[in-house]
Design a protein that fits this description.
- The structure is a single chain.
- By secondary structure, the protein is mainly α.
- Helix content is 83%, strand content 0%.
- The chain is built from three helices and no strands.
- The protein has helices at 2-94, 104-115, 127-130.
- It is rod-shaped.
- 0% of the residues are buried.
- The mean pLDDT is 80.
C-alpha cells in the first residue's frame, strides 16, 4: 500500500510539474505573441498611414487637374466672349448705314450695353459707364 501511495504521490507530483511547465510554456507563448502583435501594430499603423497619404496625394492630383480644366474652360469662355464682341462690333460698323448719325439716346444705350461686357473693360470709351 505504501508503494502505491508513493507512486500515486509521485504521479501527482509529476502531474503538477507537467502542469507548471505547461503553464510556463503557455505564458511564454502568450508574451511572445503579445510582443509580436504589438510590434506588428506599428507596421499596420505605418501601412495605414502610407495608404492614407497615397489616397490624399491622389485626391490632390485630381483636384489640381480639375482646377486646371476649370481655368482652361474659363479662359476659353472669355476668349469666345471677346471674339463675339469683336465680331459684333465689326458687323455693326460694317452694316449699311453705319456711317449715318444715330439718335444720341440710342447710341448711349448701345454703348452702355457694350461696355457692360467683360471684353470691353479695357476700352477707354467705356470708362464713363463704369464710374
Amino acid at each position: 500500500m505504501i508503494t502505491s501511495l508513493k507512486s500515486a504521490f509521485d504521479a501527482m507530483s509529476l502531474l503538477s510539474r507537467v502542469c507548471a511547465v505547461l503553464a510556463a510554456v503557455l505564458l511564454v507563448a502568450g508574451v511572445v505573441t503579445l510582443i509580436g502583435w504589438s510590434m506588428g501594430a506599428g507596421d499596420r499603423q505605418k501601412a495605414a498611414q502610407a495608404d492614407a497619404e497615397a489616397t490624399m496625394a491622389g485626391a490632390r492630383t485630381k483636384a489640381a487637374g480639375d482646377a486646371v480644366r476649370a481655368a482652361d474652360e474659363a479662359a476659353k469662355g472669355a476668349a469666345a466672349d471677346e471674339q463675339a464682341t469683336r465680331d459684333n462690333t465689326d458687323a455693326i460698323r460694317g452694316a449699311p448705314g453705319a456711317d449715318k448719325p444715330v439718335a444720341p439716346a440710342v447710341a448711349d444705350k448701345g454703348r452702355r450695353r457694350i461696355c457692360q461686357r467683360q471684353s470691353a473693360a479695357a476700352d477707354p470709351s467705356c470708362k464713363r459707364y463704369r464710374e
